[in-house]
Specification:
six-stranded mixed beta sheet; 16 helices; 38 strands; alpha+beta; elongated
Length: 723
């Protein structure tokens, strides 16, 4: 073993411990997000660089006002009260690492200090979630971490009888001066076991009295009338701008929200190995600190891809936490192998590691985590060293990046959204569809939608895996969840498809047609009881089957089904499945516009109550064309509805549905990339195409694929995918 000065040995020890901290366990890595191809609608207001950290909630009130607290993206402070820890600041007798800390107080201080700024400095730097760990030592409360004590937390008498001001009063003063900023205080305590519950209750009460704005009921603190799903505007209207999350299990105050009922870490904390032999082995592995950072960021990928726990705050722990205790052998073996670090790094080792992690976290927020399928799933992003101003991260730079996720973000491509057009013509804003299992969002290449007689809406999606998935929006607005369809062998799961369509039938069945990866058209039925008939190839002239590039289906009032395709040769054809015995008619070529056949890139068909079927298609000229197949089998001929400001409506995608009053509704992705809606009245007149409202109040929805179905109450359901 090498020998040297105490300071040098301390620095060597810290290097070994830093690598030991690198032996963090990780979950299985997940695939990265889909490619981003667009920006959400522009809004006037603050930009990232103009965010005022000390009052950003007030500044962004027009943007975050209607958002629930658990959907506002905010910086948080891990072990917020540790800036005052030094090797001479004292020890918490009840601390979980106090024994090791007493042996190496300077080492313990370096590994326990996670913040460089005071609590008020963190609030000024944009943090709105303070993770407070309090220790009752003697008759006073202190911040602490592991073993070492930080600053005195509550006011108390000093050695000469004077009042020593605690850090909690400074926080209370700041909160009272910033009534438009909602501050969340999560409190966890330790102390003498015999009186811990009573002491903790007293601490929560004292904190409430300080930050609650005065009065017996702590009027500024959110009570039982609010919860994590209450909006920022609701907090402001109630005059509440403090949330106390009580993690002490000692109170039942209505203003002390109980943990874990109100907050979820969702597995974001990456814990250290409990096997000390693994730590020793890790200490000798070159490059392990980077593996630590990679582990934390990969865990972030995983948790941000999962759907949030309903009704809870989500606290993402973007941190490295030191091991709870390191045996003497770990230090001694590490000393023998590792080199020196700087004095600053020795004195601030955990912060130095966090500074590098924060730098890489900032880069992640600007790239892979800079689009809606991630930012919509963020809430509290809790970090160490909120006041960092070194290692390539300027003061406030990370916090502004986190807060900016409340501003319009890049939209993830191929994500499914649902929107409702009410019978009175008003719209609900598009809301994203939850993904398969724990996945946060569903993304796919194609979609199809059908209305059922009972008010349900059936949705099919060809996922990014290439397979067809099925979901149901129940009449009450809830969702059943995604299930994979069986493969063409009707045994294994996973029917790979190029295109798909679904239609509701009068008897409660749903009929599905799909173009398989082999290019042939297949038919299936989901019966009203939820069972499936199984796939069968549709008949045609290609060795008894039919090939197609696009497909659409309409369930007719009499129980028959009309199927429309662009065949393998590009020509539009139509066939009918008889209601009585399920037999298929031969394929009929649909005449074009002054041509023997119609060819194009997209098509849709819908039934009307009288037995007519309405067809819209995008021709080879890029415009929408409309035709009607009458109940007697005759055709009215093609006509082109007018565009927004042109004689014809150019489009990339189109869908049509029949309404109970005989009208038809059409949605299309225009040439500008936005989704438009129009009505064709039963007398043949068209309303102008108008933009469908966008995400979070945007004036337009930039789409890729569209589907629409009309319900019996006169409303219609849209399924939209982003581009």
């Amino acid at each position: 073993m090498r020998t040297g000065s105490r300071a040098a040995q301390r620095r060597l020890t810290l290097v070994g411990l830093s690598v030991a901290l690198g032996s963090l366990t990780t979950g299985t890595a997940v695939a990265g997000p889909a490619t981003v191809e667009q920006i959400s609608p522009a809004q006037s207001g603050p930009t990232r660089d103009s965010i005022v950290l000390g009052s950003w909630m007030e500044q962004l009130g027009g943007t975050i006002g209607n958002r629930p607290l658990n959907q506002i993206v905010m910086p948080g402070s891990h072990d917020a009260g540790t800036a005052g820890i030094t090797e001479n600041s004292g020890m918490c007798d009840a601390g979980d690492t106090v024994d090791s800390a007493r042996k190496w107080p300077d080492l313990a201080a370096s590994l326990s200090r996670t913040q460089s700024g005071s609590l008020v400095q963190q609030l000024e730097a944009g943090s709105r979630y303070l993770d407070l760990r309090l220790c009752k030592q003697g008759d006073k409360w202190y911040s602490y971490h592991g073993g070492p004590l930080g600053r005195q937390f509550f006011d108390a008498f000093g050695a000469r009888g004077e009042i020593v001001r605690g850090e909690a009063r400074e926080v209370a003063d700041w909160i009272n001066q910033h009534p438009k900023e909602v501050v969340i205080l999560r409190v966890k305590t330790t102390g003498p076991a015999a009186t811990l519950k009573e002491d903790s209750r007293a601490a929560i009460s004292e904190l409430g009295a300080l930050v609650g704005g005065g009065g017996l009921d702590n009027p500024a603190i959110a009570d039982g009338s609010l919860n994590p799903t209450s909006t920022y505007d609701e907090f402001m209207a109630a005059g509440k701008h403090v949330v106390v999350v009580d993690d002490t299990n000692s109170t039942s105050y209505p203003w002390a929200w109980q943990q874990p009922a109100v907050q979820d870490y969702r597995g974001s904390y990456v814990g250290v190995s409990g096997d000390w032999q693994d730590i020793l082995k890790a200490a000798l592995t070159p490059g392990l600190p980077q593996k630590t950072y990679d582990a934390v960021l990969k865990r972030g990928d995983e948790v941000l891809g999962k759907a949030p726990a309903p009704g809870k705050l989500f606290v993402q722990q973007a941190i490295i936490d030191p091991t709870h205790s390191i045996p003497d052998a770990a230090f001694m073996n590490a000393l023998d192998e590792l080199g020196l670090v700087s004095d600053w790094e020795a004195d601030n080792y955990l912060i130095s590691m966090e500074n590098e992690l924060n730098k890489q976290l900032l880069a992640k927020l600007r790239t892979a985590w800079n689009h809606t399928n991630v930012t919509d799933n963020m809430n509290v992003v809790m970090t160490d060293d909120v006041n960092q101003n070194r290692n390539g991260v300027g003061a406030g730079e990370l916090q502004r990046e986190i807060i900016s996720k409340n501003l319009p973000q890049r939209i993830t491509s191929d994500t499914f959204y649902n929107s409702t057009r009410k019978a009175d013509g008003s719209w609900t804003g598009p809301s994203p569809l939850r993904g398969v299992g724990e996945a946060f969002r569903f993304a796919g290449e194609r979609q199809a939608v059908a209305a059922m007689a009972n008010g349900d809406t059936h949705v099919l999606g060809i996922g990014l895996d290439g397979n067809i998935w099925h979901n149901v929006r129940l009449a009450d607005g809830s969702w059943q969840g995604w299930n994979a369809l069986l493969a063409s062998d009707n045994k294994s799961f996973g029917f790979a498809a190029k295109d798909v369509s679904i239609t509701g039938m009068p008897n409660g069945d749903a009929q599905i047609v799909a173009v398989g990866k082999d290019g042939y058209v297949y038919h299936n039925i989901r019966r009203a009881d939820g069972s499936w008939q199984g796939w069968a190839a549709m008949p045609g002239t290609d060795s008894g089957r039919v090939k197609a590039t696009r497909v659409a289906a309409a369930g007719m009032p009499g129980g028959s089904t009309q199927v429309l395709i662009f065949g393998g040769d590009g020509k539009m054809r139509l066939a009918t499945r008889a209601a009585a015995d399920g037999t298929w008619s031969s394929w009929q070529t649909v005449a074009g516009v002054n041509a023997p056949d119609f060819s194009g890139s997209a098509l849709s068909i819908a039934a009307l109550p009288g037995g007519d079927s309405q067809i819209v298609a995008i021709g080879n000229d890029g415009n929408i064309w409309h035709n009607t197949r009458r109940a007697d089998g005759g055709w009215t001929g093609w006509g082109a509805p007018a565009g927004v400001s042109t004689d014809t409506m150019g489009a990339f995608a189109v869908s049509i549905t029949g309404m109970i009053d005989g009208d038809s509704q059409v949605v299309a992705v225009g040439l500008d990339g936005n989704v438009y809606h129009a009505v064709r009245h039963s007398d043949g007149d068209w309303t102008p195409f108008q933009r469908v409202p966008g995400i979070r109040g945007g004036g337009a929805f930039a789409g890729d694929q569209v589907g629409i179905v009309g319900l019996r109450d006169g409303s219609s359901q849209l399924i939209l995918t982003t581009r």
